[in-house]
TrEMBL record:
One Pfam family matching this protein: Peptidase_M14
Residues of the signal peptide: 1-20
InterPro entries in the record: CARBOXYPEPT_ZN_1 (IPR057246), M14A-like_propep (IPR036990), M14A_act_pep (IPR003146), Peptidase_M14 (IPR000834)
Alphabetic keyword roster: Carboxypeptidase, Cell membrane, Disulfide bond, Glycoprotein, GPI-anchor, Hydrolase, Lipoprotein, Membrane, Metal-binding, Metalloprotease, Protease, Signal, Zinc
Function: Carboxypeptidase which preferentially cleaves C-terminal acidic residues from peptides and proteins. Can also cleave C-terminal hydrophobic amino acids, with a preference for small residues over large residues.
Membrane topology, as annotated: Lipid-anchor; GPI-anchor
BP GO terms, sorted: proteolysis
Protein name: Carboxypeptidase O
């Protein structure tokens, strides 16, 4: 199976040792606070807004609540002032991250040039966009099951591609959609999409579950939606979140693409100020990245059974809706499947996930792709918020890529398996001699390539 990883993989570019980033976070700290009273909440809101602190959890001032976790990044020059103010108001805090820049530096290989990869693509490190583009090309070339497709262009006119994993068959199939990287700084998400593709291709012959659902389902995987933002997070600001759309004559940048879909757009949990991390754009689907996704999904929606969108952090499997507390009609089933997925995930390394509707267990937000997908009729729609629960937040160290992906794989395949069994009952007996020989011919070409 390692043949696959052994594909020759030449990197067109070499990234210098350090992130060649404009914005540094030397001495910035991330603080963890659980406000106890309404007065404390008010003081924290005031502090965060006057000092323009970077809210990691929740994302909006209004969502700071007594008894709930607050994670804020405080720039180095303000650390003392903020701590003094918290002390004065008798608000206790814990330092989650002592020096953000130190973590940022650790999350990319110091000497990427040493990584000449004769062994193939390394799935346990973070990759810049150029390498992910190259990876997509190589995956398509090296597998009979994978085709790369054009999805659309970004604000900065870069190409967005998705991969389709499809077992050749002449019977009609349904579709599972998964996207990653809608928020630039959540690097673990694109790492998971790549891991997912690798795992499917490595194991579809030996793993009975994958073999079974691939007979009925095509997998559409979009490793990075927000290509411009992802590149920007590598080259300029590691903690960039949004896309790179210029607003107000380029005096401010970026729409939160997960507030830009046409699901109660602009109604709750958003900002109309383009300096905000949760700016929802100038209108529903104002962004080309959003429109690219919408166009394909609209076209295929009657065949799509499941829409998965992968984020970090917080360790949640979230169900619709974020924009209203009214549960969707199939809420009970959505919850049961998510709970089963979370249990499978926990079985691997004991990582604990919370499951529930976004507006009830996290906070309300409109314009998410998850809500939109369910509203247009895709029955199973989930947001994954991957590791961790705040210890490293958006700067998850690379040594957690593998365990995170392994456990998440179990959750995702649990969901896909459920959907498969529901829509294709009795599919297990479908492995006929015809499909077996097809499998074998695929193996053969695989080895030959
Ligand atoms: C992949 O990257 C990880 C993290 O940098 C490193 O520890 C590991 O040795 C690499 N594996 C290979 C096969 O190069
Ligand atoms: C965007 O890129 C495409 C190629 O992908 C090119 O044909 C087109 O001219 C570009 N558009 C702009 C505005 O640069
Ligand atoms: C943008 O710039 C143009 C010309 O430089 C000016 O006429 C216009 O008022 C500006 N718009 C905004 C929103 O600042
Ligand atoms: C958004 O949805 C509403 C109906 O809910 C529709 O009237 C409107 O045209 C849609 N907007 C876009 C940009 O698709
Ligand atoms: C947008 O937010 C910034 C930063 O908080 C603020 O300075 C600016 O006045 C706001 N703009 C508008 C139009 O409200
Ligand atoms: C995260 O979870 C671990 C156990 O899984 C716990 O020890 C730690 O306190 C949690 N951290 C936060 C910030 O909640």
């Amino acid at each position: 199976m390692w043949l696959f990883l052994g594909m020759t993989f030449s990197l067109g570019i070499l990234i210098p040792g350090k992130l060649c980033s404009d914005l540094q976070y030397d001495g910035d700290q991330v603080l963890h606070i659980v406000p106890e009273t309404f007065q404390q909440v008010q003081h924290l809101q005031h502090l965060c807004s006057t000092l323009m602190l970077d809210l990691w959890k929740p994302q909006l001032l209004e969502d700071i609540r007594a008894g709930e976790d607050l994670h804020i990044r405080v720039p180095a020059p303000l650390v003392q002032e903020v701590k003094d103010s918290l002390d004065q108001h008798m608000i206790s805090y814990k330092v989650l991250i002592n020096d953000v820049q130190e973590l940022v530096d650790e999350s990319v290989l110091k000497e990427r040039s040493q990584r000449q990869v004769p062994e193939g693509y390394n799935y346990t490190e973070y990759h810049p966009m150029e390498e992910i583009y190259e990876w997509m090309t190589q995956i398509e070339k090296n597998s009979e099951l994978v085709t790369q497709h054009y999805l659309g262009n970004t604000v900065e006119n870069r190409t967005i591609y998705y991969l389709q994993i499809s077992q050749p068959s002449n019977k009609p199939k349904k579709i599972i959609w998964m996207d990653c990287g809608i928020h630039a700084r959540e690097w673990i998400a694109p790492a998971f999409c790549q891991w997912f593709v690798k795992e499917i291709l490595q194991n579809y012959e030996s793993d009975a579950t994958i073999r079974r659902f691939l007979q009925n389902l095509d997998l559409y995987v979009l490793p990075v939606i927000n290509v411009d933002g992802y590149i920007y997070s590598w080259e300029a600001e590691r903690l960039w979140r949004k896309n790179r759309a210029p607003y107000m004559n380029g005096t401010c940048y970026g729409t939160d693409l997960n507030r830009n879909f046409n699901s109660s757009w602009g109604s709750v949990g958003v900002s109309f100020n383009c300096t905000s991390e949760v700016f929802c754009g100038s209108g529903p689907e104002s962004e080309p990245e959003t429109r690219a996704v919408v166009q394909l999904i609209e076209q295929k929606k009657s065949d799509i059974l499941c829409y998965l969108t992968v984020h970090s952090y917080g360790q949640y499997i979230l169900t619709p809706y974020g924009s209203t507390t009214t549960p969707p009609s199939n809420n009970e089933e959505l919850m049961q499947v998510a709970q089963k997925a979370a249990a499978a995930l926990m079985g691997k390394y004991g990582t604990s996930y919370k499951v529930g509707s976004t507006s009830l267990i996290l906070y309300s937000n409109s314009g998410s792709s998850r809500d939109w997908a369910h509203m247009i009729g895709i029955p199973f729609s989930y947001t994954f918020e991957l590791r961790d629960n705040g210890t490293y937040g958006f700067v998850l160290p690379p040594d957690q890529i593998q365990p995170t992906c392994e456990e998440t794989m179990l959750a995702v395949t649990t969901i896909i398996d459920y959907v498969d069994q529901k829509y294709f009952p009795g599919g297990a007996v479908m492995l006929t001699s015809g499909s077996l020989s097809l499998c074998l011919s695929v193996v053969f070409t695989w080895i030959a390539s």
